[in-house]
Amino acid sequence: SAAEASIVSANHYPTVSSNNSGASANKDKTVYAPRYGPNGSTLGNDSNDGRSPIYGLLSPSAQLRYQINEMLGDVSQFRPDLARGLRALLQYRDDDVEDTFGLVFEASYDAYGEITTVPLIPNGAQVPVTSQNRVEYVMRYLQWILNDSIAKQFEPFKRGFYYVCGGNALSLFKPEEIELMVRGSGEDWDPRDLIPLTEVVGFEEAMVVLDWFWEVLREMEPAERKLFLAFVTGSDRLPTVAANSQLKLKVVLLGKDSRRLPIAHTCFNQLGLWMYQSKNELRDKLAMALNESEGFGLK
Q1: What is the DSSP string of 218-263?
Q2: Which residues are catalytic?
Q3: Rg of the chain's alpha carbons, rounded to an integer?
Q4: Pairing outcome for strands 263-265 and 114-119
Q5: Which candidate in 23, 73, 179, 249 could, as Cys together with 28 as Cys, close a disulfide (CB 3.0–4.6 Å)?
Q6: DSSP secondary structure string, 58-114?
């Protein structure tokens, strides 16, 4: 996006070096590069951490800006206000950063209603963030929130992930590709692609109801189709294209009581319909089921 591109501009913040570290008083002048997993571990291709081949041709300062932009993009997905604040700090033009922002080398988080602070460097509470060390502050904050703060929880997950999915083939994928394989695609999909993957039961004398169902599905907005997938399968995302053939749906005609709502069994990707009297009735009953159902209430 334009906002993300703007932060990469070299004019927005200075190059980091050991000479401008705010931690100099503590003899800690190292600016750590981001790691995409605690203890330097990564999931996926190790070459340039799965980045574009152009990354290896960039200067160290340009690589730093690239890394900061990547990490801010990750943080914006779950802490958008924090990401915007860090961007504003980096893009601030004047020299009065210390007076304007009033920051020190500490991070904070809410622990069950109690705000807890963590030093980002030794004696971080005594080191103000200035125009000269703000890049180091942002890097250390991002390193802390994306890696250090969750290291204890991440390690068991990493061991379990490699136990189930580990192997030489894993190194062939970029992190984004692994995410796509695990989580599926959040893009919209064409209901006609599901027709050959769907088992139909009980519609021998009510094929018109089945035809109405596919028409209603095609006429839905993308957000409604997400609700439909979540209602029937428990996930609002489709498997990747290569795995689509393994997504099997089952649509069953349950009986003639058209007063009842559709029923789903997510464990079996099964949808149960009734012999509705019109396409509009099917649409209304299905919409009510999609919007009013809760399932297990898990996100």
Answers
A1: HHS-HHHHHHHHHHHHS-SSBPPGGGGGG--EEEEEEES-TTSPPE
A2: 267
A3: 26
A4: unpaired
A5: 23
A6: S-HHHHHHHHHHHHHHHHHTT-HHHHHHHHHHHH--SS-HHHHH--BSEEEEEETTE
Q: Which bin fits 237, alpha (ψ -120 to 50), beta or left (φ > 0)?
A: beta
What tokens were used for 45?
């291709």
Q: Rounded to whole angstroms, how far apart are CA atoms 102 and 272?
A: 59
- 187-191: long-range contacts (C-beta < 8 A, 24 or more apart)? 187/238, 188/222, 188/225, 189/225, 189/238, 190/218, 191/217, 191/218, 191/225
Q: Tell me: pLDDT of 208 over 70.
A: yes
CB 291 within 8 A of CB 298: no
What pTM did the predictor assign?
0.56
Q: Are 274 and 252 in contact (CB under 8 A)?
A: no
Assigned token pair, 278: 């019109």
| Cα–Cα distance measured from residue 288 to residue 61, given in angstroms and rounded to the nearest whole number | 54
Instruction: Tell me which of 47-56, 110-119, 258-267 is least confident.
Output: 47-56
Q: Other CB atoms closer than 10 Å to residue 177's CB: what's the count?
A: 14
Q: Looking at residue 172, what is its pLDDT?
A: 79
Place of tokens 């299905």: 286
The number of residues making up the chain comes to 299
Return the number of other C-beta atoms located less than 10 Å from residue 67's C-beta. 19
Q: What angle do CA 265, 268, 270 make, to 5 degrees?
A: 55
Q: Which one, of 233, 232, 223, lies nearest residue 189 by Cα?
A: 223
Which of the 8 DSSP states describes residue 148?
G
CA dihedral 33→71→91→53, nearest 10 degrees, is 70
- Determine the residue type at 209: V
